[in-house]
Design goal:
The complex is a heterotrimer.
Chain A: H1 6-22, H2 29-53, E1 70-73, E2 78-80, H3 88-105, H4 113-132, H5 136-157, H6 165-198, H7 205-210, H8 215-232, H9 241-248, H10 251-276, H11 278-304, H12 309-329, H13 333-364, H14 380-393, H15 402-416, H16 418-442, H17 461-476, H18 479-502
Antiparallel strand pairs in A: 1-2
Helix pairs in contact in A: 1-2, 1-4, 2-3, 2-4, 3-4, 3-10, 3-13, 3-17, 4-5, 4-10, 5-6, 5-10, 6-8, 6-9, 8-10, 8-11, 9-10, 9-12, 10-11, 10-12, 10-13, 11-12, 11-16, 12-13, 12-15, 12-16, 13-14, 13-15, 13-17, 13-18, 14-16, 15-16
Chain B: H1 2-7, H2 11-27, H3 31-58, H4 61-64, E1 67-76, E2 79-87, H5 89-112, H6 119-138, H7 142-160, H8 167-198, H9 203-209, H10 220-237, H11 246-249, H12 255-264, H13 269-276, H14 278-281, H15 285-306, H16 312-332, H17 336-364, H18 376-379, H19 381-395, H20 401-418, H21 422-450, H22 465-480, H23 491-495, H24 508-531, H25 536-544, H26 546-553, H27 558-603, H28 611-630, H29 636-641
Antiparallel strand pairs in B: 1-2
Helix pairs in contact in B: 2-3, 2-6, 3-5, 3-6, 5-6, 5-12, 5-17, 5-22, 6-7, 7-8, 8-10, 10-13, 10-15, 12-17, 15-16, 15-21, 16-17, 16-20, 16-21, 17-19, 17-20, 17-22, 19-21, 19-22, 20-21, 20-24, 21-24
Chain C: H1 7-27, H2 31-56, H3 62-92
Helix pairs in contact in C: 1-2, 2-3
The chains are: A mainly alpha, B mainly alpha, C mainly alpha.
Chain lengths: 505, 644, 105
């Protein structure tokens, strides 16, 4: 087994880049943008290497750093246990894809670029950490690392539209913190109970999953975790931070937040809540499905009423997370596979979308759809990127988003019947608002007001090229993604089903 | 060559994909080179497809044992998709037809699109479309087919909206996508049902298991539901009532696109798909009746609209809707061969008429109103005469292609009626009436545009060879393509059939009826629009029955109804939900925040700032706590006193 | 010695001193008076410390040592307190505690 700490290296690369940038003079703008790109590039490279080096046939946790968990706080069972399996790998890769491209999407920021890059790098590290930590404590630790940079970034680099950026930042932060407060209560109760039941203190997910918690206890704790992770995943009705937050946030934050940070919620639900508390999950699954379906329909309709591009994508991502919840609630291999893949797909799509909207805003200083129009005449590449993201958003077959949606539909239709039909009907509404936005922003008569608008060029092409090719490749070869996820979910779901059988339900 | 084509059938769709990629990423700045790449790739595809088709049609084994190979594309527990290739005579015919029409349209476009700033892009899109369509045709799996199905929809969207500066084009593109999406929603549900109930999406496997549905615990009602849901996809894609509204608007795209996508190939995908899935529909007769009814109704309905339209492409578009209705009708009465035969002949004569119309528009600089044209046949002889050939074919004059296929449809409908389906007589009446109307409106168009007095159109001249050559080829095909399916030598139905091959006696009476109907239609058009130079009779007819005229001219107000529904119901609902979100959901959130803030505001008055007040509270608290903690230890004081 | 001195005398004395100190600290308006009252309270504590040490653990000196600590701390506190009061007096020209309420809302 490999003992070189690849994952820790991937975690440290952005931190080191941030440290280097701290000591670089303020004037060397190019220099530290390049440093940031290199830092995230190293992480991206490592995650690609790990992704394709992972042995799917064997499955389980691989690429364990130092070959074993390193004890850290023995009394709490905390270990530095960095490893990946088919569940964390797609999300790790996603994080680094988006982190890398987010650096390029903020290439033109002229306001305090140095601080922006430092915070961005720390943010990426935090998100990455949550996906590779196999210890609950470390998972929560990284999660908290994420919150603070986001607040600062929104307040300094954000923009005020319907709501002020201070409001948006506060809403975002407080939602994240309230979510984590619920989580913390659940985690502490769970840990105390686990020590009582097993006699040893071990916070690793695997160890916790081996313990048979009493059913009633599982139901209570699962509810806490559901609220915590659910508000992170913008589950209806805990979603209202999402549109405001994205609209207020600068491009890079919107990309990372919608792209991966949200996915911590979904990842936590599978990796932790469902995995450790299968009976609780079983109890709450119908409710999750209902909330998911409401989220899909409700957010899609709200998106239809939006005039601001970022609000539109904000609501759209709430709607897409409804699909994820629906997939998870089916509690079957197909649905969970679909949910994880949908998170990956949505991450790529949403960050491309936000990057493109960011570029539009940079050039036109507006995101208000009625003010825009005819952009494709001046900026065809920008328009192509926008349409690509839009098509992915409406689940066009041949792009990475389709098969995940299809598998979610398949699983939820089988389990929930006609409830799922409402969610499936969401594809019509999605098409409606995406195409309307695309048509009114990009097409129509050329607007002389935007004459001389620059098309994407140089470093700005990176998000389009990188994320766009992931969209297409993932669509043509979905097994690249699904086989990986399946190698993790199949054993997990087997274990859960076994627990449900014993649980007598 | 044939062996190669059969083994490498996947190359047929792959070549256009490659040309798409080449144009987009490499040759876009060089217009001529781009079109050469596209046409070269298409030519390759066509050659492969035709040798493949030759191989299939000369080898009767393929009729019963289709060529099928597949690879694992996606797999997990309970859901496996093998993508692959399924070639039987039907798909071989489609491959040949699609690649041929695509090739001709691309050649035509080199003339038509000359000088367009996005010339290269146009060829890239056409290539992508051809690739998706060819992929759809040879798919062996429903999911794979659905992917291509949506991709052709995407290409259609891109090409309808190709003139991005036109608001009408952008709206039409959007409408097309969303309308077909509604159908796809139903189709998706159908596919999901099939996967859940039968655990496979492979066409051959489905064909094997569906007849035994009862043993698998699937009720007839559920299967009917599946079939109807599934049928929604073809209804939208093939422009059947009530989801036909996008197709006439799709004429906003460049004319070659209308010819290729919205007449010859993509819109017939729905028919093809129903044909492919006929094994599902025949199990539930109720669903077949629905198919037949929708088809017959659409055929007549669209024909009545086409009678009064003024835009040349719009007339042709409604004509397409109507002809697609014929094909659906044929499927509904259970005849795959009649349906696909009409699909085959229709592709040629309709593509021909669209391309000829494009040639007219090209010459007239996009003046589209037929009432402002006239006598063009003298200035544009090739365009004019080829259009006339198309007109004869669609009207059903023997020996042109349309006659044989339409006759076949009438025949199978008649037989369907005679075999105890009372509704069949209604369908037959619809079909016969449509045949008459078709002849009438097409010849109305021809007389108005090409004959009669010349209107003041200076500088009108015949289109270049690149445009007339495809017209000539298509005109020849419109003339002869039906000859492989005459009642005497019916090669067609020995190749392509569902169940037993149809081998009926030639029905001379029906042939006579259909010819009479066609001639009556042409004659009426001649009287109203050619002989009568001022068109007095036609105008007064419209004046006399304004309600009828408006109903037809305004397309039965269906567009208005849809617009009303989207504007008021959907957008209104969206607005309500959004207001609910920002006032109620957000209201609760902000309310909680306000509560926190408010309680802080209230409690701050406890902070008097006076040190001594704090100290007082502090000491009192200590006192209270001391007493409280020592209450139960009643002997605390006694303990103190008891020392020593 | 019998009947003469027992801990209750010290306790009563210290309680009296402490209560006087509390009363002074809470009611006096002048900062210096408050400071003096606090000294009284500390003195009360010291008496307790020394007395309990004497009667309960005569072999150890911890109570005595604590008293010395308290005296030291008290001295420091008085020094600091007086310095603050002088600074206040200079800036605000007052030593009345009621005027020093700028920490309120």
């Amino acid at each position: 087994m490999m003992t070189f700490p690849f994952l820790t290296t991937a975690l440290l690369a952005p931190v080191i880049a941030a440290l280097i940038i701290v000591f670089l003079p303020k004037e060397k703008v190019k220099f530290y943008k390049t440093t940031a790109a290199i830092g995230t590039g190293i992480s991206l490279f490592i995650s690609l290497y790990v992704y394709f080096g992972y042995d799917q046939a064997t499955g389980g946790l691989q690429w364990v750093d130092f070959g074993r968990p390193i004890p850290w706080i023995a009394d709490l069972g905390v270990t530095w246990h960095m490893a990946v399996d088919g569940l964390s790998l797609p999300l790790l890769l996603l994080t680094n894809l988006i982190g890398f491209t987010a650096v390029f999407a903020s290439w033109n920021v002229s306001k305090r670029p140095k601080e922006l890059m430092i915070l961005l790098l720390l943010l990426i590290t935090g998100v990455m950490g949550t996906f590779v930590a196999q210890n609950l404590f470390i998972f929560l630790l990284f999660y908290e690392v994420v919150v603070i940079p986001i607040y600062i970034m929104v307040v300094i680099w954000g923009s005020s539209k319907r709501v002020t950026k201070e409001y948006a930042a506060m809403k975002l932060t407080i939602y994240l913190l309230i979510g984590s407060a619920f989580l913390l209560v659940g985690v502490i109760a769970l840990f105390v109970k686990s020590v009582a039941l097993s006699g040893t203190a071990d916070m690793s997910f695997e160890a916790l999953a081996q313990i048979d918690f009493p059913e009633q206890f599982q139901i209570y704790i699962f509810a806490l975790l559901l609220v915590g992770f659910g508000s992170l995943l913008s589950m209806w009705p805990f979603h209202s931070w999402s549109p405001d937050g994205y609209a207020g946030a600068p491009t890079a934050v919107s990309m990372i937040h919608a792209g991966v940070l949200k996915k911590i919620g979904g990842y936590g639900l599978i990796r932790f809540a469902i995995y450790v508390l299968p009976l609780g999950a079983n109890f709450w699954a119908p409710y999750i499905a209902v909330l998911g379906v409401i989220g899909v329909a409700y957010a899609a309709m709200s998106a239809l009423a939006q005039k601001d591009l970022k609000y539109l994508v904000g609501y759209s991502s709430v709607s897409h997370m409804g699909y994820v919840l629906l997939g998870l609630a089916s509690l079957g291999v197909i649905g969970v596979n679909g949910a994880v893949a949908a998170m990956f797909a949505h991450g790529v799509m949403a960050s491309l979308f936000f990057a493109m909207i960011g570029f539009i805003y940079e050039r036109t200083h507006t995101r208000y759809i009625p003010d825009l129009g005819g952009l494709s005449h001046y900026a065809p590449r920008l328009a192509a990127g926008f349409m690509l993201a839009g098509m992915a958003s409406l689940g066009l077959p041949g792009l990475v988003t389709f098969i995940p949606e299809f598998t979610i539909f398949l699983a939820s239709f089988e389990v929930f019947g006609w409830l799922a039909v409402v969610a499936i009907a969401g594809i019509i509404i999605t098409a409606l608002y995406i195409l309307r936005a695309g048509a009114n922003t990009l097409f129509g008569p050329a607007n002389p007001q935007f004459k001389g608008l620059q098309d994407l060029k140089g470093p700005e092409m990176v998000p389009l090229v990188v994320l766009g090719s992931v969209l297409v490749i993932g669509g043509i070869m979905p097994s690249l993604l699904f086989d990986m996820i399946d190698s993790a979910t199949a054993p997990i779901m087997t274990q859960i089903n076994a627990a449900l059988q014993i649980g007598g339900r | 060559m044939i062996e190669f084509a059969l083994n490498y059938a996947w190359l047929v769709p792959l070549l256009p994909v490659l040309s798409f990629l080449t144009i987009v990423f490499l040759t876009r700045p060089w217009a001529r080179l781009s079109s050469a790449v596209a046409i070269g790739a298409m030519l390759g595809s066509f050659l492969l497809a035709s040798s493949l088709a030759w191989g299939v049609f000369t080898n009767p084994a393929f009729i019963e044992e289709p060529l099928h190979y597949s690879l694992r594309w996606l797999g997990m527990e309970g859901f496996t998709v093998n993508a692959g290739i399924l070639i039987d005579p039907a798909s071989a015919m489609m491959l040949f037809m699609v690649s041929l029409v695509a090739l001709l349209v691309q050649i035509y476009s080199t003339g038509y699109m000359k000088g367009d700033p996005h010339y290269s892009l146009f060829f890239a899109y056409l290539s992508l479309f051809a690739a998706s369509m060819l992929g759809l045709v040879i798919s062996s799996n429903l999911l794979q087919m659905f992917i291509f199905w949506e991709l052709v929809g995407l290409c259609s969207y891109l090409l309808i909206g190709f003139y991005t500066y036109k608001v009408s084009a952008r709206e039409a593109a959007k409408k097309a996508f969303i309308t077909t999406r509604i159908g796809d929603f139903g189709m998706l549900l159908g596919i999901l049902f099939l996967q859940i109930q039968f655990n496979t999406l492979d066409l051959l496997e489905l064909a094997a298991v569906i007849p035994n549905f009862a043993q698998l615990g699937v009720s007839l009602g559920l299967l009917t539901l599946i079939a109807i849901l599934f049928f929604l996809g073809p209804v939208a894609k093939s422009g059947q009532f009530p989801l036909h509204v996008w197709l006439p608007d799709a004429m906003e795209g460049p004319t070659p696109v209308s010819a290729l996508i919205h007449a010859a190939t993509m819109v017939v995908a729905g028919v093809y798909l129903v044909g492919r899935m006929l094994f599902l529909f025949v199990e539930v007769p109720g669903s077949l009746t629905v198919v037949a009814f929708i088809g017959a109704f659409t055929a007549l309905f669209a024909a009545t609209i086409a009678v009064t339209q003024r835009e040349i492409k719009r007339i042709l578009a409604y004509s397409t809707v109507s002809q697609l209705g014929y094909m659906m009708l044929a499927l509904g009465v259970g005849s795959l061969s009649a349906s696909l035969f009409h699909l085959w002949t229709h592709a040629f004569f309709k593509a021909l008429m669209f391309l000829a119309a494009g040639s007219v528009l090209h010459a007239l600089h996009n003046k589209a109103d037929v009432w402002e044209m006239g006598g063009l046949i003298r200035k544009m002889p090739i365009t004019g005469w080829t259009f006339v050939v198309g007109g004869l074919a669609i009207a059903g004059i023997p020996p042109f292609a349309g006659f044989w296929s339409k006759d076949e449809i009438l025949l199978v409908t008649w037989e369907y009626a005679r075999h105890g389906h009372a509704l069949g007589y209604l369908f037959f009446a619809f079909a016969a009436l449509t045949a008459f109307l078709t002849a009438f409106y097409i010849w109305r168009l021809i007389f108005l545009v090409f004959f009669g007095p010349e209107k003041a159109n200076d500088h009108v001249h015949e289109s270049p060879l690149s445009m007339t050559l495809p017209l000539l080829v298509l005109a020849v095909l419109s003339g002869v393509a039906g000859l492989i399916g005459t009642p005497w030598t019916n090669l067609w139905s020995t190749w392509i059939h569902f169940g037993d091959a149809h081998s009926g006696e030639p029905a001379y009476l029906l042939m006579l009826l259909s010819v009479v109907l066609a001639l009556a239609g042409i004659g009426l058009a001649f009287i109203l629009y050619c002989k009568d130079q001022d068109k007095q009779a036609a105008r007064s007819l419209a004046k006399k029955y304004p309600a009828l005229y408006n109903l037809s001219y305004r397309k039965y107000y269906i567009d208005e109804a849809y617009t009303w529904f989207t504007r008021k119901i959907v957008d209104g609902g969206a607005k309500v939900i959004y207001l609910f979100d920002i006032y109620l959901v957000d209201g609760v959130v902000n309310g909680l925040a306000a509560l926190t803030k408010g309680s802080g505001q209230g409690l701050k008055y406890l902070q008097t700032g006076k040190l001594q007040t704090y100290a007082l509270i502090f000491f009192l608290a200590v006192l209270v706590l001391t007493v409280a903690f020592n209450l139960d230890s009643a002997n605390a004081l006694a303990h103190l006193g008891g020392v020593k | 010695m019998a009947g003469a001195l027992n801990p209750s005398y010290f306790v009563v004395l210290s309680a009296a001193l402490f209560t006087i100190g509390i009363y002074g600290a809470l009611s006096k308006k002048n900062a210096i008076a408050v400071l003096i009252s606090i000294e009284l309270m500390l003195g009360a504590v010291n008496i307790n410390l020394v007395a309990f040490n004497k009667y309960f653990t005569p072999e150890a000196f911890s109570g005595q040592i604590f008293a010395i600590f308290v005296i030291t701390v008290a001295a420091v506190e008085v020094g600091l307190g007086l310095a603050l009061i002088i600074a206040l007096c200079r800036r605000r020209n007052t030593t009345a505690l009621d005027d020093l309420d700028w920490l309120k809302w």
